[in-house]
Amino acid sequence: MADSPSTPHDALFRAIFDNPEALRGELVALLDSPLRELVSLATIDRVPGRFADEALRGLESDALFQVRLPGEPPLLVYVLFEHQSRTDPLMPWRLLQYMVGIWARVLADEPGRTRLPPILPVVLSNASGGWRAPRSVRALLEAPGWLGAHLARHTPDFEFVLDDLVTVPPDALERRQLSPFAKLGLWLMQTARDRPRLEAGFPRWSRLLDELRGTPRELFRLLVYLRVVANLTVDEVLALTQVRLGAPEEEEMITARDIWLSSLTPEWRKEVEEEARERWEKAGLQQGLDKGLQQGLQQGLQQGLQQGLEQGLEKGLERGREQGLVEGQRLAVVALLEAKFGPLSPPWRTTIEIASAEDLGRWIPRVLVAARVEDVFGG
Protein backbone atom coordinates (compact mmCIF):
# COMPACT_ATOMS: atom_id res chain seq x y z
CA MET A 1 0.00 0.00 0.00
CA ALA A 2 1.58 3.14 -1.16
CA ASP A 3 -0.11 5.72 0.96
CA SER A 4 -1.70 6.23 4.34
CA PRO A 5 -5.33 5.38 5.09
CA SER A 6 -7.43 8.50 4.66
CA THR A 7 -10.46 7.39 6.73
CA PRO A 8 -11.20 4.77 9.41
CA HIS A 9 -13.19 2.84 6.74
CA ASP A 10 -10.15 2.86 4.48
CA ALA A 11 -7.81 1.83 7.29
CA LEU A 12 -9.95 -1.12 8.41
CA PHE A 13 -10.62 -2.31 4.83
CA ARG A 14 -6.92 -2.29 4.03
CA ALA A 15 -6.01 -4.00 7.31
CA ILE A 16 -8.46 -6.81 6.54
CA PHE A 17 -7.47 -7.28 2.90
CA ASP A 18 -3.74 -7.02 3.47
CA ASN A 19 -4.21 -10.74 4.10
CA PRO A 20 -5.14 -12.45 0.78
CA GLU A 21 -6.93 -15.16 2.74
CA ALA A 22 -9.62 -12.58 3.52
CA LEU A 23 -10.35 -12.39 -0.22
CA ARG A 24 -10.59 -16.17 -0.43
CA GLY A 25 -13.16 -16.21 2.36
CA GLU A 26 -15.14 -13.44 0.65
CA LEU A 27 -15.16 -15.17 -2.75
CA VAL A 28 -16.11 -18.56 -1.33
CA ALA A 29 -19.08 -16.84 0.35
CA LEU A 30 -20.13 -14.81 -2.70
CA LEU A 31 -19.42 -16.89 -5.83
CA ASP A 32 -21.36 -19.76 -7.39
CA SER A 33 -19.91 -23.11 -8.37
CA PRO A 34 -17.64 -24.09 -10.10
CA LEU A 35 -15.68 -20.83 -9.68
CA ARG A 36 -16.15 -21.04 -5.92
CA GLU A 37 -14.46 -24.47 -5.79
CA LEU A 38 -11.61 -23.28 -8.02
CA VAL A 39 -10.99 -20.22 -5.84
CA SER A 40 -10.89 -22.38 -2.71
CA LEU A 41 -7.86 -24.17 -4.22
CA ALA A 42 -6.20 -21.15 -5.82
CA THR A 43 -3.05 -19.28 -4.87
CA ILE A 44 -3.93 -15.64 -4.10
CA ASP A 45 -1.48 -12.74 -4.03
CA ARG A 46 -2.06 -9.05 -3.33
CA VAL A 47 -1.07 -6.77 -6.24
CA PRO A 48 0.39 -3.42 -5.06
CA GLY A 49 -1.34 -0.21 -6.09
CA ARG A 50 -4.66 1.60 -5.99
CA PHE A 51 -6.97 2.36 -8.88
CA ALA A 52 -9.94 4.21 -7.38
CA ASP A 53 -10.51 7.88 -8.19
CA GLU A 54 -8.17 9.97 -6.02
CA ALA A 55 -10.93 12.55 -5.56
CA LEU A 56 -13.10 9.84 -3.97
CA ARG A 57 -10.50 8.42 -1.57
CA GLY A 58 -12.60 9.50 1.41
CA LEU A 59 -15.60 7.56 0.07
CA GLU A 60 -14.10 4.35 -1.28
CA SER A 61 -11.15 1.98 -0.87
CA ASP A 62 -9.83 -0.65 -3.26
CA ALA A 63 -7.48 -3.61 -3.57
CA LEU A 64 -6.31 -5.78 -6.48
CA PHE A 65 -5.44 -9.48 -6.27
CA GLN A 66 -4.07 -12.11 -8.64
CA VAL A 67 -5.75 -15.49 -8.33
CA ARG A 68 -3.83 -18.36 -9.92
CA LEU A 69 -6.34 -21.12 -10.65
CA PRO A 70 -5.09 -24.70 -11.12
CA GLY A 71 -4.57 -25.31 -14.82
CA GLU A 72 -6.01 -21.91 -15.81
CA PRO A 73 -4.58 -18.48 -16.70
CA PRO A 74 -4.38 -16.02 -13.76
CA LEU A 75 -7.55 -14.17 -12.81
CA LEU A 76 -7.44 -10.62 -11.44
CA VAL A 77 -9.94 -9.77 -8.70
CA TYR A 78 -10.62 -6.09 -8.07
CA VAL A 79 -12.34 -5.29 -4.76
CA LEU A 80 -13.89 -1.86 -4.20
CA PHE A 81 -15.27 -0.93 -0.79
CA GLU A 82 -18.00 1.67 -1.19
CA HIS A 83 -18.35 3.23 2.27
CA GLN A 84 -20.77 6.03 1.42
CA SER A 85 -24.05 6.09 3.30
CA ARG A 86 -25.89 6.01 -0.06
CA THR A 87 -25.45 3.74 -3.07
CA ASP A 88 -23.91 5.23 -6.21
CA PRO A 89 -26.21 4.69 -9.24
CA LEU A 90 -23.18 4.98 -11.57
CA MET A 91 -21.12 2.30 -9.83
CA PRO A 92 -20.86 0.07 -12.96
CA TRP A 93 -19.47 3.04 -14.91
CA ARG A 94 -16.91 3.80 -12.19
CA LEU A 95 -15.87 0.16 -12.03
CA LEU A 96 -15.45 0.05 -15.81
CA GLN A 97 -13.04 3.00 -15.63
CA TYR A 98 -11.03 1.35 -12.86
CA MET A 99 -10.88 -1.94 -14.78
CA VAL A 100 -9.63 -0.14 -17.89
CA GLY A 101 -6.96 1.48 -15.70
CA ILE A 102 -5.87 -1.96 -14.47
CA TRP A 103 -5.63 -3.29 -18.03
CA ALA A 104 -3.68 -0.19 -19.07
CA ARG A 105 -1.12 -0.85 -16.34
CA VAL A 106 -0.85 -4.53 -17.34
CA LEU A 107 -0.15 -3.55 -20.96
CA ALA A 108 2.37 -0.93 -19.88
CA ASP A 109 4.20 -3.50 -17.75
CA GLU A 110 4.05 -6.16 -20.48
CA PRO A 111 4.27 -4.37 -23.86
CA GLY A 112 4.25 -7.62 -25.83
CA ARG A 113 0.82 -8.67 -24.61
CA THR A 114 -1.93 -9.12 -27.21
CA ARG A 115 -4.67 -10.33 -24.83
CA LEU A 116 -6.01 -9.01 -21.53
CA PRO A 117 -6.25 -10.84 -18.21
CA PRO A 118 -9.81 -11.40 -16.97
CA ILE A 119 -10.96 -9.18 -14.10
CA LEU A 120 -13.63 -10.12 -11.58
CA PRO A 121 -15.07 -6.92 -10.04
CA VAL A 122 -16.33 -7.16 -6.45
CA VAL A 123 -18.07 -4.38 -4.53
CA LEU A 124 -18.40 -4.26 -0.73
CA SER A 125 -21.06 -1.88 0.50
CA ASN A 126 -22.39 -0.82 3.89
CA ALA A 127 -24.86 1.73 2.52
CA SER A 128 -27.86 2.36 4.74
CA GLY A 129 -30.85 0.28 3.67
CA GLY A 130 -28.81 -2.00 1.42
CA TRP A 131 -27.75 -1.71 -2.23
CA ARG A 132 -30.44 -0.12 -4.42
CA ALA A 133 -28.61 0.77 -7.62
CA PRO A 134 -27.82 -1.01 -10.92
CA ARG A 135 -25.10 -3.64 -10.94
CA SER A 136 -24.43 -3.75 -14.70
CA VAL A 137 -23.44 -1.28 -17.41
CA ARG A 138 -26.39 -2.33 -19.56
CA ALA A 139 -28.81 -1.31 -16.80
CA LEU A 140 -27.43 2.25 -17.04
CA LEU A 141 -28.25 2.74 -20.72
CA GLU A 142 -31.17 4.94 -21.72
CA ALA A 143 -32.56 2.63 -24.39
CA PRO A 144 -35.93 0.87 -24.73
CA GLY A 145 -35.90 -2.87 -24.20
CA TRP A 146 -36.09 -3.84 -27.86
CA LEU A 147 -33.24 -1.50 -28.79
CA GLY A 148 -31.12 -2.61 -25.86
CA ALA A 149 -31.50 -6.23 -26.94
CA HIS A 150 -30.26 -5.40 -30.46
CA LEU A 151 -27.37 -3.32 -29.09
CA ALA A 152 -26.29 -5.87 -26.51
CA ARG A 153 -23.57 -7.44 -28.68
CA HIS A 154 -22.20 -3.97 -29.47
CA THR A 155 -22.17 -2.66 -25.88
CA PRO A 156 -19.52 -3.31 -23.20
CA ASP A 157 -21.21 -4.93 -20.26
CA PHE A 158 -20.53 -6.79 -17.01
CA GLU A 159 -22.21 -7.34 -13.68
CA PHE A 160 -20.16 -6.92 -10.54
CA VAL A 161 -20.23 -9.30 -7.59
CA LEU A 162 -21.89 -7.53 -4.65
CA ASP A 163 -21.29 -8.08 -0.96
CA ASP A 164 -24.16 -6.04 0.49
CA LEU A 165 -22.88 -6.11 4.07
CA VAL A 166 -25.90 -4.37 5.58
CA THR A 167 -28.18 -7.24 4.49
CA VAL A 168 -25.90 -10.17 5.42
CA PRO A 169 -27.46 -12.13 8.34
CA PRO A 170 -25.18 -12.58 11.39
CA ASP A 171 -25.22 -16.38 10.96
CA ALA A 172 -24.03 -16.10 7.37
CA LEU A 173 -21.26 -13.66 8.29
CA GLU A 174 -20.16 -15.88 11.17
CA ARG A 175 -19.91 -18.91 8.84
CA ARG A 176 -17.58 -17.19 6.39
CA GLN A 177 -14.08 -18.64 6.14
CA LEU A 178 -12.44 -15.54 7.61
CA SER A 179 -10.13 -14.76 10.51
CA PRO A 180 -11.71 -13.42 13.74
CA PHE A 181 -10.30 -9.97 12.89
CA ALA A 182 -11.82 -10.01 9.38
CA LYS A 183 -15.22 -11.20 10.65
CA LEU A 184 -15.31 -8.54 13.35
CA GLY A 185 -14.15 -5.89 10.88
CA LEU A 186 -16.90 -6.70 8.38
CA TRP A 187 -19.46 -6.83 11.18
CA LEU A 188 -18.43 -3.37 12.41
CA MET A 189 -18.59 -2.03 8.84
CA GLN A 190 -22.12 -3.47 8.76
CA THR A 191 -23.36 -2.08 12.08
CA ALA A 192 -21.18 0.82 13.32
CA ARG A 193 -23.58 3.48 11.97
CA ASP A 194 -26.58 1.77 13.63
CA ARG A 195 -26.07 2.20 17.40
CA PRO A 196 -28.98 -0.02 18.59
CA ARG A 197 -27.97 -2.82 16.19
CA LEU A 198 -24.34 -2.44 17.22
CA GLU A 199 -25.05 -2.72 20.95
CA ALA A 200 -27.52 -5.58 20.50
CA GLY A 201 -25.00 -7.59 18.48
CA PHE A 202 -21.99 -7.29 20.76
CA PRO A 203 -22.79 -10.27 23.02
CA ARG A 204 -22.81 -12.52 19.95
CA TRP A 205 -19.34 -11.40 18.88
CA SER A 206 -17.66 -11.18 22.30
CA ARG A 207 -16.00 -14.58 21.78
CA LEU A 208 -14.15 -13.30 18.71
CA LEU A 209 -13.11 -10.18 20.61
CA ASP A 210 -11.59 -12.42 23.28
CA GLU A 211 -9.56 -14.18 20.57
CA LEU A 212 -8.01 -10.85 19.55
CA ARG A 213 -6.72 -9.90 22.98
CA GLY A 214 -3.40 -11.49 22.13
CA THR A 215 -3.05 -9.34 18.98
CA PRO A 216 -3.24 -5.76 20.29
CA ARG A 217 -2.61 -4.10 16.92
CA GLU A 218 -5.64 -5.77 15.33
CA LEU A 219 -7.76 -5.04 18.39
CA PHE A 220 -6.61 -1.42 18.34
CA ARG A 221 -7.79 -1.00 14.73
CA LEU A 222 -11.26 -2.20 15.70
CA LEU A 223 -11.42 0.09 18.74
CA VAL A 224 -10.39 3.09 16.62
CA TYR A 225 -13.04 2.25 14.02
CA LEU A 226 -15.68 1.97 16.74
CA ARG A 227 -14.71 5.27 18.34
CA VAL A 228 -14.66 7.26 15.10
CA VAL A 229 -17.43 5.70 12.95
CA ALA A 230 -19.87 4.95 15.77
CA ASN A 231 -19.00 8.34 17.33
CA LEU A 232 -18.30 6.88 20.77
CA THR A 233 -16.18 8.27 23.56
CA VAL A 234 -13.18 6.26 24.78
CA ASP A 235 -15.15 5.29 27.90
CA GLU A 236 -18.09 4.10 25.78
CA VAL A 237 -15.77 2.02 23.58
CA LEU A 238 -14.23 0.37 26.64
CA ALA A 239 -17.59 -0.25 28.29
CA LEU A 240 -18.95 -1.85 25.11
CA THR A 241 -15.95 -4.05 24.37
CA GLN A 242 -14.77 -4.75 27.94
CA VAL A 243 -11.16 -4.34 26.79
CA ARG A 244 -8.63 -4.10 29.61
CA LEU A 245 -6.23 -1.24 29.11
CA GLY A 246 -2.55 -1.32 29.95
CA ALA A 247 -0.34 1.30 31.54
CA PRO A 248 1.53 3.63 29.14
CA GLU A 249 4.82 1.81 29.77
CA GLU A 250 3.37 -1.58 28.73
CA GLU A 251 4.28 -1.64 25.05
CA GLU A 252 2.10 -4.66 24.18
CA MET A 253 -1.04 -3.24 25.78
CA ILE A 254 -3.48 -0.70 24.40
CA THR A 255 -3.82 2.49 26.44
CA ALA A 256 -6.59 5.06 26.62
CA ARG A 257 -4.10 7.55 25.20
CA ASP A 258 -3.68 5.36 22.10
CA ILE A 259 -7.41 5.35 21.42
CA TRP A 260 -7.83 9.05 22.10
CA LEU A 261 -4.89 10.00 19.89
CA SER A 262 -6.28 7.93 17.02
CA SER A 263 -8.25 10.95 15.79
CA LEU A 264 -5.19 13.19 15.90
CA THR A 265 -2.45 10.93 14.52
CA PRO A 266 -2.39 7.97 12.09
CA GLU A 267 -2.97 4.58 13.65
CA TRP A 268 0.44 3.42 12.51
CA ARG A 269 1.97 5.78 15.12
CA LYS A 270 3.41 2.97 17.25
CA GLU A 271 5.14 1.33 14.30
CA VAL A 272 6.78 4.64 13.41
CA GLU A 273 7.90 5.24 16.99
CA GLU A 274 9.42 1.77 17.28
CA GLU A 275 11.26 2.04 13.98
CA ALA A 276 12.63 5.46 14.89
CA ARG A 277 13.66 4.15 18.33
CA GLU A 278 15.69 1.29 16.82
CA ARG A 279 17.44 3.50 14.30
CA TRP A 280 18.30 6.17 16.86
CA GLU A 281 19.66 3.56 19.27
CA LYS A 282 21.99 2.26 16.56
CA ALA A 283 23.24 5.81 16.12
CA GLY A 284 24.44 5.84 19.75
CA LEU A 285 21.63 7.93 21.23
CA GLN A 286 20.32 5.37 23.76
CA GLN A 287 20.75 7.64 26.77
CA GLY A 288 19.03 10.54 25.06
CA LEU A 289 16.17 8.33 23.93
CA ASP A 290 15.64 6.86 27.41
CA LYS A 291 15.21 10.31 28.96
CA GLY A 292 13.84 12.34 26.06
CA LEU A 293 12.09 10.33 23.36
CA GLN A 294 10.07 8.16 25.73
CA GLN A 295 8.93 11.17 27.77
CA GLY A 296 8.08 13.21 24.67
CA LEU A 297 6.12 10.38 23.04
CA GLN A 298 4.21 9.58 26.24
CA GLN A 299 3.02 13.20 26.34
CA GLY A 300 1.69 12.69 22.82
CA LEU A 301 3.17 12.85 19.37
CA GLN A 302 1.08 15.94 18.73
CA GLN A 303 3.22 17.87 21.29
CA GLY A 304 6.11 17.57 18.91
CA LEU A 305 8.70 14.90 18.25
CA GLN A 306 11.38 17.57 18.16
CA GLN A 307 10.58 18.72 21.73
CA GLY A 308 10.89 15.16 23.06
CA LEU A 309 14.23 14.66 21.34
CA GLU A 310 15.61 17.94 22.68
CA GLN A 311 14.66 17.05 26.25
CA GLY A 312 16.32 13.66 25.98
CA LEU A 313 19.42 14.72 24.13
CA GLU A 314 20.11 17.66 26.50
CA LYS A 315 20.28 15.21 29.41
CA GLY A 316 22.13 12.56 27.42
CA LEU A 317 24.90 12.93 24.90
CA GLU A 318 25.89 16.58 25.29
CA ARG A 319 28.75 16.39 22.85
CA GLY A 320 26.58 14.97 20.09
CA ARG A 321 23.53 17.09 20.86
CA GLU A 322 23.34 19.15 17.70
CA GLN A 323 24.35 16.36 15.35
CA GLY A 324 22.04 13.85 17.04
CA LEU A 325 19.05 16.20 16.97
CA VAL A 326 19.33 16.85 13.26
CA GLU A 327 19.87 13.15 12.49
CA GLY A 328 16.93 12.21 14.69
CA GLN A 329 14.71 14.69 12.87
CA ARG A 330 15.94 13.40 9.52
CA LEU A 331 15.19 9.78 10.48
CA ALA A 332 11.79 10.81 11.87
CA VAL A 333 10.82 12.50 8.58
CA VAL A 334 11.83 9.41 6.59
CA ALA A 335 10.06 6.99 8.98
CA LEU A 336 6.83 9.03 9.07
CA LEU A 337 6.72 9.54 5.29
CA GLU A 338 7.42 5.91 4.46
CA ALA A 339 4.84 4.70 6.97
CA LYS A 340 2.24 7.01 5.45
CA PHE A 341 3.11 7.05 1.71
CA GLY A 342 5.31 3.97 1.17
CA PRO A 343 8.96 3.82 0.02
CA LEU A 344 10.35 7.24 -0.93
CA SER A 345 11.81 7.89 -4.37
CA PRO A 346 15.53 8.85 -4.57
CA PRO A 347 14.80 12.56 -5.23
CA TRP A 348 12.75 12.85 -2.01
CA ARG A 349 15.46 11.03 -0.04
CA THR A 350 18.07 13.43 -1.42
CA THR A 351 15.90 16.40 -0.39
CA ILE A 352 15.76 15.07 3.19
CA GLU A 353 19.49 14.28 3.33
CA ILE A 354 20.51 17.86 2.46
CA ALA A 355 17.79 19.60 4.49
CA SER A 356 18.60 21.98 7.32
CA ALA A 357 17.42 21.50 10.91
CA GLU A 358 14.90 24.31 10.38
CA ASP A 359 13.40 22.54 7.35
CA LEU A 360 13.21 19.19 9.15
CA GLY A 361 11.46 20.71 12.15
CA ARG A 362 8.91 22.34 9.84
CA TRP A 363 8.22 19.14 7.88
CA ILE A 364 7.53 16.75 10.79
CA PRO A 365 4.09 18.14 11.82
CA ARG A 366 3.11 18.53 8.15
CA VAL A 367 3.29 14.76 7.62
CA LEU A 368 0.31 14.24 9.94
CA VAL A 369 -2.05 16.27 7.74
CA ALA A 370 -0.51 15.92 4.28
CA ALA A 371 -2.45 14.11 1.54
CA ARG A 372 0.61 13.78 -0.73
CA VAL A 373 4.37 13.69 -0.28
CA GLU A 374 4.61 16.99 -2.17
CA ASP A 375 2.44 18.71 0.48
CA VAL A 376 5.12 18.09 3.13
CA PHE A 377 7.96 19.83 1.30
CA GLY A 378 6.09 22.66 -0.41
CA GLY A 379 6.25 26.25 0.91
Write the layout of secondary structure elements.
Blueprint (H helix, E strand, L loop, with lengths): L7 H10 L2 H11 L4 H7 L1 E5 L12 E9 L6 E8 L8 H19 L9 E7 L19 H7 L9 E4 L5 H6 L4 H12 L3 H17 L4 H14 L4 H8 L14 H6 L7 H14 L3 H14 L5 H11 L5 H21 L4 H8 L3 H11 L5 H5 L2
Parallel strand pairs: 3-4, 4-5
Antiparallel strand pairs: 1-2, 2-3
Please describe what this structure looks like:
The protein is of the alpha/beta class and 379 residues long. The protein has 3 domains: 8-137 and 155-167; 180-261, no CATH class; 269-377, no CATH class. It is built from 18 helices and 5 strands. The chain has helices at 8-17, 20-30, 35-41, 91-109, 145-151, 170-175, 180-191, 195-211, 216-229, 234-241, 256-261, 269-282, 286-299, 305-315, 321-341, 346-353, 357-367, 373-377; strands at residues 43-47, 60-68, 75-82, 119-125, 161-164. The chain has a 5-stranded mixed sheet. The longest helix is centred in the last third of the chain and has 21 residues, at 321-341. The chain starts with 7 loop residues before the first helix and ends with a helix. Mean pLDDT is 79; it is low at 263-269.
The strand order across the widest sheet is 1-2-3-4-5
How would a textbook summarize the main sheet? 5 strands, mixed
Helical residue percent band: 40-55%
The secondary structure category is alpha/beta
Q: Termini, distance in Å?
A: 27 Å
The number of helical segments is 18
Low-confidence stretches: 263-269
